[in-house]
Amino acid sequence: MTPRERYDAVLSGGVPDVVPRIPILMQFAAEYIGSHYGEFAKDHHVLVEANLRCAEDFELDQVSTISDPYRETSAFGAEIRYHRDGVPECVKPPLADLAPGAPIAGRIAVPDPLTSTRMRDRIEAVRLYRKRVGDRYSILGWVEGPAALAADLRGMSEFLVDLLEEPAWAGELMDLCTETSIRFARAQIDAGADTIGVGDAVCSQISGPVHAESIYPRQLRLMQAIQAAGARVRLHICGPTRHLWTQLSKLPIDILDCDHVVDMAAARAVFPPHVVLAGNLDPVSILRFGRVAQVSDGVRRCQRVSGERFMVCAGCEVPSGTPLENLHTLCRPLQSSSLSP
Fold first, then answer.
1. Which phi and psi angles does 233 have, rounded to 5°?
2. Which of 63, 103, 175, 218 falls 20 to 30 Å from 199 in CA-CA distance?
3. Where are the domains of the chain?
4. Cis peptide before 51 (omega within 30 of 0)
5. If DSSP codes are grouped into helix, strand and coil, which group holds residue 338?
């Protein structure tokens, strides 16, 4: 099987020759080719080269466009500061000084992903992947979820207060964010992405009732639009999410990334059988600083509790400085549980 074929096999309920490997690589990938995080985030040529080299050398099954959460934020006028060896920084959220309840429509509008510099750069990454490897690998596009983008635009603390004190106004902002992410996702799908990752990390800090009322309907709209455009949905929420599972399990998710703090056995019992679980080795204590045997044992534990609908991944991004032997071990061909004795 090609990498894309085994990836599709698991998603369609088939049996792959080996379990797909879909770790998230950013700073590690940049440094692996002798570059650095700042260039990786600014230039899609560096991002693509880094991911393809890692895909070849570590036998990955998916290549990614993720670099940082500020692609869309920059399109709303935010200044993004790049750091050589760290995540790009939003100097000031574009709506940080907007009074809650003030008109939003006159302040910002849904950007065009084809004319916004950083959004277009991600789209160009998808095109370059397609040009260089065709259908050999799954190509992962990426958008910010409704809550995450709203928090990027307002500031984390301000957005969380808005949700409690001005829920209708926060909802208006998230509607704009949802439309932005839908347009961005469609542009990446048109360019050749077969899967769209939805990053909505702030949700782990939000209560179940508030999520159900304000965020779930917008996540649902975004994911339905992605699937209607012909792509799969990969949901990524950092941190503990068990308090959200009642709502998340109803979303049209194809792949659920499980942070290392998540109980994957419990997740498997709650989420529908067709949802693929990806994860969830501790990226720091096990992958970065652990021994090879710990990595190997951890992958097998994840597979055992997840069953056939499983893909290999760390709990989050593979950290800079991860020993090569540990990443090779994470991505070592693993037979599907359906083929295991």
1. -120, 125
2. 103
3. 3-330
4. no
5. coil
139-181 pLDDT, tens digit each? 999 999 999 999 999 999 999 999 999 999 999 999 999 999 9
Tokens of residue 285, six digits = 């204590």
Distance between CA 289 and CA 97 in Å, rounded?
A: 42
Angle 19-264-229 (CA atoms, 0-180°, nearest 5)? 65
Cβ contact 66:178 at 8 Å? no
pLDDT tens by residue, 58-111: 999 999 999 999 999 999 999 999 999 999 999 999 999 999 989 998 888 999
Strands 80-83 and 86-90: antiparallel
**Bridging pattern class, strands 138-144 and 255-258:** unpaired
The first and second tokens of residue 113, run together, are 């992903």
The angle subtended at Cα 203 by Cα 26 and Cα 193, nearest 5°, is 45
Length of the chain: 341
Separation CA 11–CA 167 (nearest Å): 36
Pair 51, 63: CB distance under 8 Å: yes
- Assigned token pair, 164: 């409690």
How far apart CA 46 and CA 40 sit, in angstroms, is 5
Question: Two tokens at 76?
Answer: 């709303």
Rounded distance between C-alpha atoms, residue 276 and residue 20, angstroms? 11
pLDDT 10s digits, 254-268: 999 999 999 999 999
Average pLDDT over residues 263-280: 97
Taking the domain 3-330, which CATH number applies? 3.20.20.210
Q: Which two tokens stand for residue 327?
A: 């990443």
For residue 341, pLDDT over 50 is answered with: no
Helices 167-191 and 216-228 pack at an angle, to 10 degrees, of: 20
Cβ pair 126, 185 in contact under 8 A: no
